[in-house]
Amino acid sequence: MTSDLSLASLAPAYIRAIAPYQGGKPISELAREFGLDEAEIGKLASKENPLGMSPKAHEALEAALADIARYPDGNSFSLRAAVSEKFAVQPDQIVFGNGSNDILELAARAFLTAGDEAIYSQHAFAVYPLVTQAVGATGVVVPAVDFGHDLNGFLAAITPKTKLIFVANPNNPTGTLLSKSALKAFLQQVPAHVLVVLDEAYDEYLSAEHTSEAIDWLQHFDNLIISRTFSKAYGLAGLRVGFGLMHAALADLMNRVRQPFNVNSLAQVAAVASLQDDDFVARSYAANQAGMAQMTQGLTRLGLSYIPSYANFVSFKVPNAAAVNQALLKQGVIVRPVANYQMPDYLRVSIGLFNENARFLHVLEKILQP
Fold first, then answer.
1. Domain of 293, in residue numbers
2. How many angstroms separate the CA atoms of 46 and 195, rounded?
3. Across residues 178-187, what is the average pLDDT?
């Protein structure tokens, strides 16, 4: 019989070296592990919208179920038209993905190969090194400054081998935000042959003052790729749909490596309906603002420091973070440990509904009591 060791050797060394992505613990898994009632478990680990999805999306999903036996539109015609109108871009500038992670992977597959380099920040989204390593390219990590991106460090790290730069704004898991002026100045200094993937998964949670202007920059920077998602403020995390905006020539190349039917039919109709529900997005933003204030005030009351966040989560520093996380799990509260982001003393908590936030803070306080 073939041993596991010899089977592993069939894959290239750079694949064997990949650390698999670890998602937030599902409610059902925690219930089984500790014998808890699923209804009593609060999940604040995966940056999901606590309001759920738009009522318009829910209605559209019910109507679409009758055709579920048929393949989806491989070109996402209706969704393409909706995104084109919503964001004032041409249809051929859009690439759709099975979540925005798919857009990040498509960029790596289309433009990176062995010997190339991709730059990303310390404490940045774990998928950047994953997709870079998966194609045999080399990741270059720039040390963070105050848990955020050091854009000058990025520029200094560019070499003749650099092909891609990943920038998350706001950043996950730290929630830090680059100013629009700093980001535009950075783009002006990046060589034209180096692509910048700007991950804006949390843009809908930004105030009007901070909302991105990057889509307007597409006409000035042919090397800019913007990644967006329906998983956060739109509440469609379970359906997995995201999109990238870029120069049409880049979109054409990414679509060549995109899997056929990578966005399912339910995801497409729900996303179209979500784009038509500005009121739901506004309510999601307001709930997040109120929840962020509740959460940060509670952490301050407990004497815990945190990284000011512009997203729908906050990372806070706590003694014995791993033990605290385990104690929270036993009480039916799921948050996210971030030791794999070189932040072993921190936990990340998503913003939930008022009662969810209150319960988390109450349980945390009891755990921290001497």
1. 23-52+279-368
2. 28
3. 98
Q: What span, in angstroms and rounded, lies between the C-alpha atoms of 253 and 244? A: 12
DSSP class of 178: -
- Contact present, 235 and 54 (Cβ < 8 Å): yes
Q: What share of the chain is helix, strand, coil (3-state, %, to 5)?
A: 45, 15, 40
Mean pLDDT, residues 251-262 = 96
Six token digits for residue 86: 């919503």
Query: Stretch 132-158: mean pLDDT, rounded?
Result: 97
Among 100, 106, 119, CA closest to 47 = 100
Separation between Cα atoms, residue 352 and residue 291, nearest integer Å: 7
Instruction: Examine the pLDDT at 1 and tell me if it is beyond 70.
Output: no
Listed in sequence order, the residues at least 6 apart from 255 whose beta carbon sits closer than 8 Å to its beta carbon are 95
If phi > 0 it is left, if psi is from -120 to 50 it is alpha, else beta; for residue 157 that is: alpha
Domain count, the chain: 2
State the average pLDDT for the chain. Answer: 95
Shared domain check, 246 and 139: yes
Asked if 109 and 117 touch (Cβ cutoff 8 Å), the reply is: no
For residue 41, the Cα-to-chain-centroid distance in whole angstroms is 23
Q: What CATH number does the domain containing 359 carry?
A: 3.90.1150.10
Determine the average pLDDT of the residues in 299-322: 97
The H or E element that residue 163 is part of is: strand 162-168
Distance of alpha carbon 194 from alpha carbon 103, whole angstroms: 17
Which residue from 183, 180, 237, 234 is spatially nearest to 205, judged by alpha carbons?
A: 234
107: burial class by Cβ within 10 Å (0-12, 13-18, 19+)?
A: buried
